[in-house]
Design a protein that fits this description.
- The chain has 383 residues and is of the alpha+beta class.
- 33% of the residues lie in helices and 27% in strands.
- The protein has 10 helices and 19 strands.
- The strands form 4 sheets. Strands 1, 2, 3, 6, 7, 8, 16, 17 and 18 form a 9-stranded mixed β-sheet that branches.
- The longest helix has 25 residues, at 253-277.
- It is elongated, with a radius of gyration of 24 Å.
- 46% of the residues are buried.
- The mean pLDDT is 97.
- It binds zinc ion (ZN).
- Zinc ion is lined by residues 77, 107-108, 140, 164.
Amino acid sequence: MVNRERLGDLFKSLVQIDSVSRREGGIAKTLQEIFESLGAEVVFDGAGPKVGGDIGNLIARFKGSRADVVPLLLNAHMDTVQPGEGVKVLFSDGTFTSDGSTILAADDKSALAVIIETIKILQENRLPYGSLEVVVTICEEVGLLGAKNLDYSLIKAEYGYSVDATDTEGIVTRAPAANRIEFKVHGRDAHAGAAPEKGINAIHLASRAISEVRIGRIDEETTANIGLIEGGKATNIVPSLVTVAGEVRSHSPEKLEQETQKIVQSFERQVSSYKEAFPSDDGLPKLETVVHQDFYVLQVPEDHSVVTLAKEAASNLGREMKTKMSGGGSDANIFFGHGIITGVLGTGMKDMHTVRESIRLDDMIKSVELLLEIVQLHAKKAV
Ligand SMILES: [Zn+2]
């Protein structure tokens, strides 16, 4: 039923519309026209100005042919990473790539093409489906800002699917929560040659704290990283300030908290033991700590409709459907934190965020077939 050429053409036209994060206005307008031409009611929320962007999140509501069915959420994001401007699409051996100078933007425009083709097939074949809420977010790539600032009063669906992964035979049901941690270690500046004893070396202090911290894979569900360090002015000045930033991720909220605290305590310990050893009148050294909850955990229960519908749909197509664990956060984490149970489906996109990004048209077709089956099963069951 999938119109191979139509799907390929739509994908090509979408990736050629520039839409790096915060400049999604152009693609948003095109998507609005497409969704409205398919009979949807389209609204934009007020997230744009909140994140410094030129347009808000797009919500397209399709009534469907079955009014008695609870609404289903379908999600993709419309923004891309850089280098994402002026994408030139190549197609050979059934595979789309860029010309090597930009990303392809299959992340996440393959999902937009898949969702739109699915709706076209439902309509032209008069297949039964319930109401669909298609939520296309902005600024996913810059910290899930669209989903974080989404106007949730506009969403009625209590569950659904985010289409933003690789594997067409997998559904991501678990993804970690993450904390971002930032430290500012304040020391005291002094001439490094003339009066080093007057200074407190912030870089040295911070590096002692860092050397105590456990990073990398802490256990099978927890990771930690120190990813940024900035400080100092010149080799002949004792540095008075250094900024250090890192993150902790875990599928377990308790471990997330524990590991975050361990890192914070190691910085606190270094600063306070320095103070004890060298008491001063100006309160230096001093530590400023900010812990920011970056995203919530995603934990879709195995027996939730989101999983059982996907598994049944796959088996109807004679395919496998495995539940998967992801190491990264996505819009689904944020929706989940707002009580919308969201699994993440794949389109076949590969090597995302690189100039080698690619996708096979056959994989996109598989993704449409699965989504089509899911939407129809949902209309049959969720009354
Ligand atoms: Zn993505």
